[in-house]
Every structure is written in C-alpha cells, then in structure tokens.
Amino acid sequence: MRKRGGAIMMEMLFYIAAAVALLATVLALSRANAAHALIYLIVSLLAVAVVFFLMGAPFAAALEIVIYAGAIMVLFVFVIMMLNVGREGTAREREWLGGRNWIAPGILSALLLLELMLALRHAPAVTSGVAVTPKEVGLTLFGPYVLAVEIASMLLLAGLVGAYHLGRRFIVRRERRR
Amino acid sequence: MSELDTIGFGLVIIAAAVGGAAFLTWFERRLLGVWQDRYGPNRLGPFGVLQVLADMIKLLTKHDWVPPFADRAVFIFAPTAIVVAMLLGFAVVPFGPELYILDLNIGLLFFLGMTSLAVYSVLLGGLASNNKYALLGGLRSAAQMVSYEVFMGLSLMGVVMLTGSFSLRAIVEAQRDLWFCIPQFLGLFTFLIAGIAESHRLPFDLPEAEHELTAGFHTEYGGMKFAMFMLGEYLGLLLISCMIATLFFGGWLGPWLPPVVWFGLKVFILICFFILLRAAIPRPRYDQLMALGWKVMLPLTLLNLLLTGAIALLMEGA
C-alpha cells in the first residue's frame, strides 16, 4: 500500500515538473524583456532537471543544472549585460512579438503538436525509470560510444581554436591602431 | 531516519546555518580586528557579541525601498536566489555518520550545481539595478564565476577518482586511513582558491570592489534585501568550509571526540583560515585574477587529474 502511494506521488511530481517546464518555456518565448525571458528559460531547465531525476537519471539531472543552468545561461546573461539594451530594446522586442508574426510559426507548431499527440497516444506513458548510476553513464560513454565522445571533443577543440583565432585578430588590430 | 525526522533535522540545519552566518558577521569583524591590531565591534554585550542584534534591528527597521528606475520584480527576486541556493547546498553535507539530510549518489554534483545557481543572484541584482556600477560589478562576477567554476569542478575529480563515487558519505568513509588533503594537496589548493572566488570574498571580491565600483552589484540595495546578499555570502563561506572539511579533511572522522564535534572543529578552523586570508592578502587587479584562473589554476588542476589517474591505474595494476 505504502509503495503504491509512493508511486502515485512520483507520478504527481513528474507531471508538476513537466507542467512547470512547459509553462516556463512558453513564458520564455513570449516575454519582451530579455532578462525576464532568460529567467523563465532557467526555470524551464531546472524543471527538466527534476524530470530527469524522477526518470532515474540523476547524473543527467546534475549535469543539466551545472552546465546548462549554471554555465551556459550565465553566458547568456553576460551577453545581455554587455549589450545593455534597456527600455528601447524591450519596446522593439514587443513590436516584433506582436500580432501577425505569430501566425505562421503558430500553425506549423500546432501541426507538429497534433502529430506528437497522435504518436504518443499509442505509446505507453513513462513517468519513471530504472535508476542509472554515474559510473554506468561513464562506462557507457567510454565503452560503446567512445567514438561519439571523441568526435564531440574534436568539435569543441575546433570551436576553441576558432574563437581564439577570431579574438586574437581583433586584439592585434586594436593594438596597431594605437 | 523517518520522514518527519528528516524534515525536523532539515529545519535545525537551516536555523543553525542562518544563525551561524549571523554570528559570523560579528566574529569576522572581531577576528579581523585582532589580526589587524585594532578593536572591531566590542561595545555591546560580552566581547561585543550583541552587535549582531543591533545590526539586525537596524536592517529590519530600515525603509525597504526599490529604486524607481530598477526592474522591480527581478530586483526583489535577486537576493533570495543566493540564500535559497546556498541553503539547498547544505542538504548533502554529512555532519556525522548518521547525521545527514540527503545521501544522493550525485551529492558532489548537487553541491556544484547549487553554487553555480547562486551566481544568478549577483548577476540579476546587477542587471536589475539599472545602475552602471552595479552593472559593471555584475559583469565582472559573471566572468569571474564562469572561469573559476571550470576548475572548481575539475579540482574535485581527483577526490572522486580515489573514492569511485560522488556520494559525500562514501568520500568521507574512503578517508579512514588517510585524509585526502595529503594525496590531493593540489586539488585542495585549487579548490580553496576557487571556493574563495566562488563565494566572492575579500581577496577576490572584485564584483563589489569599493574603491572603484562603490559597492558593485549591491550599490542600490539597502535594508533587508542588502542583508540577504550578506547572508548569502556568509552561508557560502560556511558551505565551502563544510565541503573542504568533508572532501579533504576527513569530515566527521577523528579519535575520542564525537563525530559532530570533529566536524564542527574542522569547519571552525577553516573559517578562521578564510578570515585570516581576508585580513592578510590585498585585492588583486581584475585582469590578474582572470589570468591566475586560466593560466595557473586550470593547468594545475589538469596536472593533478593526470597524476591522480596515472597513480590510481598503477596502484590497480600492482
């Protein structure tokens, strides 16, 4: 009996977290103020982390928080601060967000949503899973998927070298002007 | 522990952490006074300990004001974020063999996640204030935190390698024979520096450097909202000390005395050490701070990781 109650509780938590994620994402899309939109996006990422945790992937949940919410989003906030758009930016964004611009993307996403719902009707609802420990994740990554890891690391290295190259050109040019 | 016990213990920990942070505001000023050859707050009560009360009355009765040019909702939200994130971080700290709230198998990552979320408080506070000094302070902290977070996580991976688990209880248990501060001295050194930078305390408090940015990100804050930032900072100091004690100095392990006492003693000594650092070291220039992070600390952590991995493999082979 007690175990059954726990299962219902977990299911409730899953649906609450999923609802928060959806709502926060919609709000993140529709806010005119960039800082507010970012806060909603961070909330959405945190909700997704909770979903991961409930599905039995604590390692993915932790990485979602540390890397997405904790590092990448910080860089987004950093860029907003650098640009410091303020009130004019918000006004311009409101203009872009208003009225007719919603129609075409709205129809397309509605189609996709319909399709998704039809597809999901036949699949069983999964709200929990088997817990995967961090060790298993590591063994899988560096076992069967080692090639993917290597390719991803090469891609990141290329990005790093590219960023360094572009930034360096900028610094050299500025020094010459002096 | 039953569910109710866990909740009760959680409340005790929250009360102890907030109370400890309030006490620290006095203790730090007093200790700084001793080390810098002056008095510090010594008037109210025995040794001036009631100064905390006086400060609290002042902050609570102050007019709670939001500047008209600020982004109101974000301005009010920002100071709460750091306190909530730091208090959540205490959930995974093992205070004794049976004294803990949560024993997650990703405990260490949970702690890293919570400290990285605390950054938003400073960032959003600076952004919402709509003030150039606050904005500059927030910008600096964003760059500082992101660069120091990179090797903060990496510096702990040596400990994880030696233990084979992210669970903080397992990490303490693995130190029964030898505290990790000896085989992982490079990790300890880098984590210590990253910890100070992450809780932006004095040698590294560039986001609020008074002489160039008035008060940095909290220039526009006053009253209880300002007090929340301060509370968050002291909670961060407590949390980092708890983590260093757990990860490198054997947590609750120690002879004769009960485990909780050992843990408290270690945390207390670490806090005193942090205050000594603040009293003794001047603030570096901002570019020096960033250069130190990327050019010295990151290579050191990578070296530590390489050496630890090699030695662990050798030991396994032997």
Overview features:
heterodimer, A: 178 residues, mainly alpha, 0% strand, extended, B: 318 residues, 11 helices, 69% helix, globular
Structural notes for this entry:
The complex is a heterodimer of chains A (178) and B (318). Chain A is mainly α and 178 residues long. Helices cover 83% and strands 0% of the residues of chain A. Chain A has helices at 2-30, 34-54, 58-83, 86-97, 103-122, 134-141, 146-177. In chain A, helix 1 packs antiparallel against helix 2. The radius of gyration of chain A is 22 Å and the shape is extended. The termini of chain A are far apart. In chain A, 17% of the residues are buried. The mean pLDDT of chain A is 83. Chain B is mostly helical and 318 residues long. Chain B has one domain (66-317). Helices cover 69% and strands 0% of the residues of chain B. Chain B contains 11 helices and no strands. Chain B has helices at 3-35, 51-61, 72-89, 107-129, 132-163, 168-173, 185-198, 210-213, 223-248, 259-280, 286-317. In chain B, helix 2 crosses helix 9 (223-248) and helix 5 (132-163) runs parallel beside helix 11. The longest helix of chain B is centred in the N-terminal third of the chain and has 33 residues, at 3-35. Chain B is globular and about 70 Å long. Chain B starts with a helix and ends with a helix. The chains are: A mainly alpha (178), B mainly alpha (318). Chain A binds chain B through residues 33, 35-36, 39, 42, 58-59, 61-63, 65-66, 69-71, 74-75, 77-78, 80-82, 84, 86, 133-135, and chain B through 71, 73-74, 77, 104-106, 109-110, 112-113, 116-117, 119-120, 123-124, 126-128, 130, 135, 138-139, 142-143, 145-146, 149, 153, 164-166.
Topology:
The complex is a heterodimer of chains A (about 180) and B (about 325).
Chain A: H1 2-30, H2 34-54, H3 58-83, H4 86-97, H5 103-122, H6 134-141, H7 146-177
Helix pairs in contact in A: 1-2, 2-3
Chain B: H1 3-35, H2 51-61, H3 72-89, H4 107-129, H5 132-163, H6 168-173, H7 185-198, H8 210-213, H9 223-248, H10 259-280, H11 286-317
Helix pairs in contact in B: 1-9, 1-10, 2-9, 3-4, 3-9, 4-5, 5-7, 5-11, 7-9, 9-10
